[in-house]
Amino acid sequence: MRNIRQQITENLIPVFRRKLSGVDALPQLAVLGLLSGIVTGAVILLFRLAIEWPLEHFLPGAGSENFEQLDILTRGLLPLAGAVGLGILLHKLSIHDRKVGIVHIMERLNYHQGYISFKSAMVQFVAGVTTVVSGQSAGREGPAVHLGAAFSSLFGQWLRLPNNSIRTLVACGCAAAISASFNTPIAGVIFAMEVVMMEYTIAGFTPIILAAVSAAIITQIVYGSEPAFSVPALTMNSLLEIPWILAIAVIIGIAAAAFIHLVDNMGRHHHRPVLLRITAAGLLMVPFAILVPETMGIGYDTVSETIHGELGFWLLLGVGVAKLVITGLSIGLGMPSGVIGPTIFMGATLGGAMGLIGAQIFPELASSVGFYAMLGMGAMMGAVLQAPLAALMALMELTRNPNIILPGMLIITTASLVTSEAFGKKSLFLTILKNQGLSYQNSPVIQALRRVSVGAIMDRSILRTDRELTPDEARKALKSEPKWLLVEGSNGPTALLPAVDLARYLEDTEKQVAEEGIAPPDTVDLMEIPANRRDVAPVQYQATLEEALNEFDSTQAEALYVQRHVAPMIQRVYGVVLQSDIESYYQYRRS
Questions:
Q1: Three-state SS for 565?
Q2: DSSP class per residue in 394-434
Q3: What's CA 191's distance to the chain center, in Å?
Q4: Residues 44-66 pLDDT 10s
Q5: Strand bridging mode 559-567 / 570-577
Q6: Which residue ranges traverse the bilayer (predicted)?
């Protein structure tokens, strides 16, 4: 058994890694996607249990969302106490360690190739549970996405996979988390590629789909096959409703723009102490918890009641606006809570309220309140995240009704356009990144370079050699017919030269000795002979082509030698990469 394990470690895994270096490693990526979904599904089950178990025992009545039945004093003190506790926890952490959520995942993808620490995952787990259990206006999907991405990334790091594969694993974790949270695998796939990765690739679809499906299966074993909401049969009664649907799209688009603007404005206080900001968010939550308790927690019970037409107009309008205000204030001040759940809540309640107005104006034409609530939900999600396709897929999977597609496409795209074009708002996540002084590069060139590891294009025909050799040692070195000679210095490789230059020098020297009768040199100094030498710098085997280009820019090196840690203080060199190799590869793939 031990020999089999050793053989797998020494032979199969390195081959597996090498295959993953390229852009066409579909079978290997499919295996990773499947494993990522299983891991993420298990993590999300644990996360949901950590939220639901204490709430089911603490809150009165049945279920885990009955904050409305708490007495006024408890409702007021609970979010404040939770905020103070969270503030103290985050205050003790470094600025880097307290970053959580989908925005943090996008930052790690853009600046750190998707590497996420175990500590970050644990902070998100505690913070995500605390925000919901303490009654903050929070969602569980954002923290779930962080957890799925983090544990998928850690899985890739444990296997020491190339960075391009770790990026794919992060996307798999994001898709699996959304799939497991809503039981909507298609929406999970589109969300990962449209919102987080901001790219669509054929090779990326397969592992991400497998991750979403496997995560959904894991959660269905525990929670069943029903989606997050029980939705009655919905249909549009008449095409004459289209003008009203467009009017609702404009209203939802304005509300989404106001929400993003509020988060952006409050985010400008990010330089203030985190304990002060989180405590302030808790204090602001107190009057909302007392007067509008529906805004506490995830609020899916209110969403369900809205879909089934059980709430009146003023309550729907009031809780929708209240949720928008308190969620914008809280997230802007740095409360580590998810935004997707509140977005669904806002869209459902505001859409339901507009549906009741339509029923009063056109009672013989208007569709059900639930129909408009679902449309509002999709429109708000699409406008806030600027992800119309993900919102449409979520709407279709939640309703399981193809009749929602046409009006859904109309309201989601219109609301998204109103938010982005009429008010100039980018997606909420990009807005928060910009507020932090960060950006998200997603140009086609950068995306193409991120998909491939240096291991896929490096030249392996190299020979590491000392600077000074005897003529016999030099001839012996050339017998293996290397293309490049990597010259060793006191602190590692210092230069790269073509092996043909050494061969030419030895040939010229032999001819000179024969013709002039002089004594042959005792040593050959590879740094002194006529040769096309290149300055070199190291790059890790896991690095993507984007990282390699950045290394060229920062070091001004003319070549990079690809190395990997194989033991403490020991680096093994696998090949070399020239900048022209990267440019040639990109031109070839593009053509």
A1: strand
A2: HHHHHHT-GGGHHHHHHHHHHHHHIIIIIS----HHHHHHH
A3: 10
A4: 999 999 999 999 888 887 777 88
A5: antiparallel
A6: 29-51, 72-90, 200-222, 242-262, 274-292, 312-332, 344-363, 369-392, 404-424
pLDDT over 50 (residue 9)? no
Tokens of 211: 């991750």
Structure tokens at 583: 């440019």
Are the CB atoms for 280 and 334 separated by under 8 Å? no
Parallel, antiparallel, or unpaired for β 492-498 and 524-525? Answer: unpaired
Cα atoms found within 13 Å of the Cα of residue 363, Cβ hemisphere only:
1
In three-state secondary structure terms, 534 is: strand
Q: Which helix (H) or strand (E) holds 138?
A: none
Identity of residue 459? D
Question: Is 124 within 8 Å of 336 (Cβ atoms)?
Answer: yes
Assigned token pair, 516: 């002039």
DSSP H or E segment with residue 120: helix 118-133
Task: Determine the Cα–Cα distance for residues 278 and 284; give it in Å rounded to an integer.
Answer: 10
- C-beta of residue 60 within 8 angstroms of C-beta of residue 489: no
**pLDDT tens digits, residue range 291-336?**
999 999 888 889 999 998 899 999 999 999 999 999 999 999 999 9
Q: Calculate the alpha carbon distances from 370 to 239, 246, 355, 405, 413 in Å.
A: 17, 17, 8, 15, 20
Q: At what angle do helices 118-133 and 26-58 cross, to 10 degrees?
A: 30
Q: Closest Cα partner for 336 from 130, 108, 520? A: 130
The three-class DSSP label of residue 220 is helix
Predicted confidence (pLDDT) per residue in 243-271, tens digit:
999 999 999 999 999 999 999 999 888 88
- Compute the Cα dihedral for 398, 404, 409, 415 and give only its sign: negative
Locus of tokens 């190395």: 563
Six-digit token pair at 222?
A: 């525990």
C-beta of residue 469 within 8 angstroms of C-beta of residue 477: yes
Outline where 183-312 has alpha helix (H).
185-191, 202-223, 242-267, 274-291, 300-307
- pTM of the full structure: 0.83
Residue in the block written with tokens 């852009």: 23
In this predicted structure, which of 168-177, 363-372, 547-556, 560-569 has the lowest mean pLDDT? 560-569
Other beta carbons within 10 Å of 512: 12
Q: What is the dihedral of CA 404, 192, 107, 28, to 10 degrees?
A: 180
Query: What CA–CA distance (Å, rounded) separates 292 from 276?
Result: 24
Give the confidence band of 284 by pLDDT, cuts at 50, 70, 90.
very high
Separation CA 248–CA 271 (nearest Å): 37
